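Researcher: Batch entry, complex prediction.
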Amino acid sequence: MSTFKAPKGTYDLTPPDSAKYLAVREALAAPLKNSGYGYIETPGFEDVALFSRGVGESTDIVTKEMYTLTTKGGSQLALRPEGTASVLRAALEANLHKLGNLPVKLWYSGSYYRYERPQKGRYRHFSQVGAEAIGAEDPALDAELIILADQAYRTLGLRNFRILLNSLGDKECRPVYRDALQGFLRELDLDEETRRRIEINPLRVLDDKRSEVQKQLVGAPVLRDYLCDACKAYHEEVRDLLSAAGVAYEDDEKLVRGLDYYTRTTFEFVHDGLGSQSAVGGGGRYDGLSEMIGGPALPSVGWALGVDRTVLALEAEGVELELPATTSVFAVPLGEEARRVLFGVVTQLRRDGVAADFAYGNRGLKGAMKSANRSGARFTVVAGERDLAEGVVQLKDMESGEQTAVPLPEIAGTIRECLAR
Ligand code: HAM
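Model: Structure tokens for the complex:
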């Protein structure tokens, strides 16, 4: 160990576990690539104001969890706590919304940073795969995203997750509800901080986990009763499309997300094997965000799935991913001459697209065969002085243990044939 450790709330991905993370990332993105979403990458940091305006001044993310810094040039930056505001900023900056047909559909994958209290499933550096569909108001788009996330999780083999669905209303009906809720909450027996929250973001009070608060919330006005006809019809259509696609969901009128930009559809994927950090993914519609960050009206919808928590969910369900072996052929030279010859064979195999590795460091036959075993290679190629004198190398099938002498000029071709079988 060195003097240093990974910072609190972070962890390193190292082999062999790191292969699982890569596979999960791939699997989460696969349905998007197949559904018209184009890849977008944005910087790891942005102007602080993008998030305080976009995510919301009163959210925990902005008030408590942002890593902010002042550059030598005096700019106020923040490490990105989420992807939606950045992706929309980038889409507007590149005028993607003017180039072709709407919606602009984008997917991304990367690291995000939140100064949270670390615990299992909650980290200060974590990884998301996300999707944003910008510039269209169409219930089929909301449904598409939920269906694609469901497909991604199922393809990975996850089963014990549930989809929670809600509508938060729009700029017509939400303010009316907000007033009614505030009226109700102000009458309750609550602490100072919660009282302040009533005035800034009363919907978040509904999300309070404490039982003494939950007890008092019985009989609170529910948003569903306040939704305007347009929001109601929109929500019904999303629900119908999900049902028609065979995607089961639960209506959860208490689902309030931790970001302020949401309107209408909101949803969360929760996994029952994860304890308190149960949300493996979440998202919703954000029809007003573009205008909040100085852009034109562009109703949009998206989600982000947590890679770290998806891996934990797979472990909780005991799902083993089928990861392809990283090395197909391992070469073990005995002596200087064999080293040069087999290094040439390995180089050739790699150029032919065969995953091959080599016993470096002259550790002798025993050590080298250990490495060959550990590599998971299907075949080992061994050669010593006597083999070379006869113009052959030994090809060993690591599954059957069978060993055959193959003429040196034929070895690459023979291996390709054996692997194709
Ligand atoms: P979010 O719910 O804040 O939404 O994060 C999405 C997912 O990221 C969570 O469900 C969780 O799996 C993972 N996640 C969040 N924080 C942490 C953490 N501290 N440690 C580990 N995993 C974490 C958003 O970020 C929105 N931008 C989603 C969205 C996209 N809405 C519309 N478009």
